[in-house]
Amino acid sequence: MIKPRLEVLFKDNMLLVVNKIPGMLSQAGSHSVRRYCISDESIDNVFQRLSIENYLEDLKYDYDVLPKPLHRLDYNTSGCLMLGRTSRAAKQFSSALANNRVTKEYWGLVSNLDKVYENEGTITHPIALSSSGRPYLGGEQKAHTRWQILRHDPITRTGLCRFIIQTGRKHQIRLHASEALKLPIIGDALYGEGKQSDVLYLHARSLEFERFYKSSSGKAYKSQVKVEAPVPREWTKKMLECKFDDFVDNNSLKGFGLS
């Protein structure tokens, strides 16, 4: 397998944040990946798919241990993925992620947006799992999603929506967007009208968290870190069609006559 380039967005002595490629497993061997992301393939072929595990040796740098992914992104979701470089870092920031000390912002292109009656709001519908493992609205597990319409194109009925999640339920944004907002993520084959081969227009745009460092004099100080991932090039044509090009990174515009 020829590995595509994986962009490292942030690196210090404890953490890495990479820009996950759409179509990459963030944790190979996940049942959810097997069941929902490659339903047309046999389980025997799951490890032939591109995985973050293909990059861990390269991401060691000068450390002796492999970095560990600290959270999951769906197979076709791109963007910020945090890895702990040591066992201590993995434990500390896994706890930070679980206790909302890391702000996770996503961007999604949503369909069926005729008019914008509300620009923002909060969805608190709980999410449960069926006996087959498929998520649905219901049950008692809290799920909290803040949303905001950043841009609206009435011609294509498309919206660029920001989502900030305070819980990490399976398929939370996709389910809340489709079932609660009635604005499915474009390309979502499970909750929308997409096909398995379509681009899923959901992107982990940023992670924001606190880090503590020591200055050259040995004095400790706190730094608020925000890591942003540019939207993938696969989004460019759709973003230009909707006139959302000011949200596209300049490198992604190369070849489209706008860079």
TrEMBL record:
Domain Pseudouridine synthase RsuA/RluA-like span(s) in chain numbering: 15-178
PROSITE patterns linked to this entry: PSI_RLU
GO biological process, one term: enzyme-directed rRNA pseudouridine synthesis
Signal peptide region: none
GO molecular function: pseudouridine synthase activity; RNA binding
Cross-referenced InterPro entries: PsdUridine_synth_cat_dom_sf, PsdUridine_synth_RluA-like_CS, PsdUridine_synth_RsuA/RluA, RluA_PseudoU_synthase
Record-linked CDD domains: PseudoU_synth_RluA_like (cd02869)
Coiled-coil segments on the chain, per record: none
Family: Belongs to the pseudouridine synthase RluA family.
Protein name: Pseudouridine synthase
